[in-house]
Structures are given as C-alpha cells and as structure tokens.
Amino acid sequence: MFADYSMPELMSIFAMQGFAGLSLFSIFVLMALGLAIIFGQMGVINMAHGEFMILGAYTTYLTAQVFESVMPGLYGGYFFVAMILAFVVTFALGALVEWLMIRHLYHRPLDTLLATWGLSLILQQTYRSVFGAREVGVSLPDWMMGSIAVTDLVEIPINGLFVMVLSLLIAFAVYLLMFRSGWGRQVRAVVQNRPMAEAVGIDSGRVDRVTFALGCGIAGVAGSAFTMIGSTGPTSGQLYIVDTFLVVVFGGAQSLLGTIASAFTISQAQSTMEFFLSGSMAKVLTLLFVVGILMLRPQGLFALKVRR
Amino acid sequence: MKLSKPQTPPRRSSWTRRHLLGGLMALPALFALSSNALASEVNTTGLAVTDDTVKVGILHSITGTMAISETGSVQAEKLAIEQINASGGVLGRQIEYIQEDGASDWPTFAEKSRKLLVNDKVAAVFGCWTSASRKAVLPVFEQYNGMLYYPTFYEGLEQSPNVIYTGQEATQQILASIDWLAKEKGAKTFYLLGSDYIWPRTSNKIARKHIDKLGLKVVGEEYYPLGHTQFNSVINKIKLKKPDVIFASVVGGSNVAFYKQMKAAGVDLTKEKPLLMTISVTEDEILGIGGENVEGAYASMKYFQSLTNSNNEAFVKAFKERWGDDIVIGDVTQAAYLGPWLWKAAVEKAGSFDIEKVQAASPGIELTTAPEGYVRIHENHHLWSKARIGQAQTDGQYKVIYETEELMEPDPFPEGYQ
C-alpha cells in the first residue's frame, strides 16, 4: 500500500500517525484517571462516570454562553475558567452523591454498579429536560481550533496538544496527591486496611467522600476538555464509558501506573491498526487483544497485593 | 400523551323497546348535529374514528440516544396535525394524537406500535427514524394492517403496502450528488467514509457503483462504529490519499467529533481540497457540530431550511412560532411534516379511513403545498422529489446551490446498483 508514495510523504504520515496515537493515549488517560481513582481505590464501580464527564461539558457550554454575552473581550480565555468550574461542579455533585448513596453501599460492589447506573439514567434525563434532547454546540476560541503546520503535510492540531498537556498535568497532580501528600497516604492506608486506618485516627468516611468527589471532579475536567473533540448531548457520556472501563480494568484496578500503561498499550494498538485496517476491524481486534490478555492475567497488567 | 374519555360500551342486556325507540328518535338529531359522513361509513374496520374525531399515533424516541434526531420529527408532525385541525380536520374530523416513546430501543418500537394498532386502533402512525426501528415495526404493521408514514432518508431495498416513505431512498440522494460533483467540480477520486451500519454501507455501495459507471475512482472506503469519537487515523489516511471528494455518511455524535477533528487537523473545507459531500448532516446536526467547524461542506438533501419558495417561508414561520425562534429545520423534519398532509390527502381521496382504501388511494397523491415544493407519491410508496445540493455556512444554514430540474423517480430497488 505504500508503493505509490514518496519517502517524505511516508515519513510525515508516520509522524502524524504517531501524534494521533499519542493524542489518543492522552485522551484515554484523561478519561480513565477519575474512574481509576474511584474504582481502584474504593472498589466502587461508577457507571455514571460518563455522565459526570458530560456535566463538565455542559458547564463548559454554559460558561461559554456567559462569556459570549457578558464579557466577549475575554472570550479567548474562557476555557480555563470553564475547566475550573467544571471541576468544582462535578466535585460538589460527586461529594453529594457519595453522601446520599455510595457510602451506604460500600462492600457491595455489585449494588454500587446498579445504583450508579440508575444515577446515570437520572442524570441523562435531567440533562435532556434542562438542555433539550439535541446536542449543544460548544464554540471554542479560535486559537484552540487551529493547527501548527510543521511541514506541508505534517500538521499538529492545537487541541490535541492541549489535551496532551492537560492530561500530563493532571496525571502528575494525581501522582503528587496520592503518593507524595499526607492525604494520599491516608487514602492508601484506608485502601489497604480500613479498620487499622481507623484505629490510628483516620476519618475513613471523609477520605472516601473526598476520593469519590475527586474522581468525579477529574471526570468533569476531562468532559470539559472533550468539548474540543467530541459531542455534548444528554447521552454523549455513553460514548466514553466502554473505553474508560476497558483502560482501567486492563491496567489492573488498583494501580494508577497500570492505568497509564494500559492507556498507552490500547491507544497505540488501536491507532496503528486503524491505519492499516478499517475502523471497525481495528476496534474488534483491540477488544480481542484485551480479552486475550485478561484471560491470561485476570488481575490486569499491574496488580497490587492488598489485604482485604 | 392525549387520552380519550373512556367510552361506555352499550350494555346489551338492558335493551328494551323504550331504549330502542328513544334511540331511533334521537337519530335525526344526530344527523342534524354532524354534517359529516357517519363514522360507520368511513370506517368499516373498527378504527378509532368517531363522528368528530380520528385518532393517530406518533411513535418516535423522545428518550435515549436517538432523541437528538427524532425531536424535530415529533415537532413537525404535531405542527402538521395542529394545522390540519385548524383548517377543518380530515373528512371533517379533528385529529387526536397518541404519542408513544420508542426510547431508542427497537423492541420497544415494536411493542409500542402493537399497542397503537391493537389497543388504540389508530388510523395512521407517523414515526420511526432509524432503519432498525422501521425494520422492527414492519412485521407489526403488516400483521395488524396499519399505516406508517416514515420520514427519514434511508437505504431503500424495501417496499411495503403499509408504509409511505416520505424521505428519500438512497439513489435520490446519491446519484444526483455524484453527477454534480463530476460535472461541476471535476471530481475524479472519492473517499467513502461512514458509520458502520446498514444505511452508510448500502449508500456507499450505490455510490461506488455509480462512481465506477462514470469512470471515476474510489480511493478508500472506511467505516467506524456508531458513536466512535476518534477520527485522527482516518484523517491522516485521507491526507495521504488526497481524494478530490470525501463522501461522508457519518451519523450521530460521531459527526461532531469528525468535523471538529478535521478542522483541528488543518483540513479547511472551504478550500475544497478535498471537498466534502455529506448525506447525513442536516441543519439539526450542525447545531451540535457548530457552523464554524463544518463551513464549506456540501450536503445532498431534498430540503434545506433556506429554500426561498413561498410554501417554505410560511412553513418556517409557522414552525418557529410554534417551537421557538432558535429552532432549525432539517431535511427529515420537513419529510416528517409531509406525513400527516399526505395521509389527509389520501383519506379524502379515498373518502374513507379504511387502511385498504387509503393504500389504494395513495399512489398519485400530490402535495403542492409541501415546503420542499411539489411532491407526489409513486406506485412504490416513495415520493417523487427533487435532489438539492447546499453548502454549509458559518451560521449553521445551507446555501442552496443546485437543484435537479426534474423530480427524481424513487427507485428503492435500483437495478445494477446492488
């Protein structure tokens, strides 16, 4: 299939395709981090993860509307405000949901699955009632929609770069929070041995609430960022949920490093195969590949040994 | 959902001579009250038709993933029904609609259509959107002999006496657009891209045959799962193959991802290198995609909101008055609006609500007041209509730049294209 092309053409396409793979990787990381925290650290299967992302997207949409009508001069920078607001809103809703629902269901992972699935349906219908069934168009400042032309053929999308930088920053922040802060130590202590953690004075209820809310908050930021590349509608969250779970489970539920490794593996496999095969076929093969690996290693790529 | 008052069935055991006499004496009074033909004359098969009212069904998804697309159709059908009622109804009867929610779930569509036909005995159903939902309800409509008015442009390869297809079948959308691309734009090479299900695949099959027939070339054909959100790889492939035309039939939320990522990757559609021709993006979809992201793309439809004939101007005005100024009207919404009007015309031509008579009367029914212009029902229950090409503008509207001179004949089983 390459016979018809000149060497520079091929090189530039490989460069672009490499970038496409990396950008898919950063999208996966961004999607999965919030879920990995909730699922990995708390054992809660949050089926409403996609809806939290879309809440972030709707927050971005509303922020854009406000900026457009109240202060059009600052429109170019609204996105940063929107991301912060998205985090705040989804964090708050996450804390509320944990308090109302999740905390009554710890140690019953299958029930959290059902409960959060119900929550996702409720949220979808709420979005539909408030924003209408149609997708809303989130307009972006012009500087975010362009691309940087490196050569004639190689063009780097700015929003791809933006997502990449954002997911690196968030991954780094999560790392600092989980492994280099006092609060992170508390979270890990609760994960490893709840009674002992409580015995040394950790308020495990509060740790749970903040952990869940943090996971939701990260989902909100991800959703806000995805308005650049995807759709915002009541059911758009469903588009992400399968890939998100795939990444988290494949990586090994307890390990953030595993999540990142699995996001890398899946994204590279998928974008390479998409290039040589058709889109649907690439998806099928990716799923088969993941199923195969999980059959050999049910605990995922990376697994921590923890006392239950 | 509108419900009728429960009708008390006649209690046979209580028939007395006095009742009978009283009833007989009341008959002339009844005739005097209603100038309509008696319900028993225009309805011999037990449909929900009284002397003053007739019940119809509206069956679309108002929840679930398809609600995005089907909302416009529901609005159009309700508007048409209200307008028909305001102008005197059908055979002097006001239309009452019973709305059911298909919930984006095909078995639910089948179940609800059975409910509408068997329990509610509706005289016609306006509904369905995806081909999958139509395929799910078809056996129900054929078994219980109902009438379905189906609004969406679709892949063809179907023809049922129980369905009137008010949208285009595939050839009406595709052939004219490819001819136009070849003639006006000098297109030589095509890249076919679609979502992975029956409509894009069948459409592209027809497109490929037609492209071959014209001696032009398909350089790539590709499908992505429904709801796919990552198009960077295919955009790279398109850049590598440098086709003259991207022929796109991506649907739903994927559209937003595709056009945003195209723009971000530096593909400026206004430069027409490559040119993009879509058969799936109407004004409705542009709302979600954003006009600035799809500017310059061409679409092949039979209707655009920007059409300037007087029928359409009145239609757009009425639609906005009813549903709000911000609303946009896409191709399918207009086709859905035709449904109740075509049904009314057929019922009045037949002089009866009976399904068989409406079916027999349908071919040849014309509508001169359609927003898209003149349409006529073909023997095969599809519509004769024009094909048009529009170019997307930043404000989310299409500028109409071409229309076929003649009405295109619907051809659901195109020979040589299968």
TrEMBL record, chain A:
Q: Which GO terms describe its biological process?
A: amino acid transport
Q: Which Pfam families match?
A: BPD_transp_2
Output the superkingdom of the source species: Bacteria
What keywords are annotated for this sequence in UniProt? Amino-acid transport, Cell membrane, Membrane, Transmembrane, Transmembrane helix, Transport
GO cellular-component terms in the record? plasma membrane
* InterPro entries cross-referenced by the UniProt entry: ABC_transp_permease, ABC_UrtB_bac, BCAA_transport_permease
Q: What is its main location?
A: membrane
Topology of this chain in the membrane = Multi-pass membrane protein
The transmembrane segments are 20-40, 77-97, 156-178, 212-233, 239-263, 275-296
Give its localization: Cell inner membrane
Give this protein's Gene Ontology molecular function annotations. transmembrane transporter activity
Family assignment? Belongs to the binding-protein-dependent transport system permease family. LivHM subfamily.
Q: NCBIfam families attached here?
A: urea_trans_UrtB
Name by which UniProt lists this protein: Branched-chain amino acid ABC transporter permease
Q: What is the lineage of its organism?
A: Bacteria, Pseudomonadati, Pseudomonadota, Gammaproteobacteria, Oceanospirillales
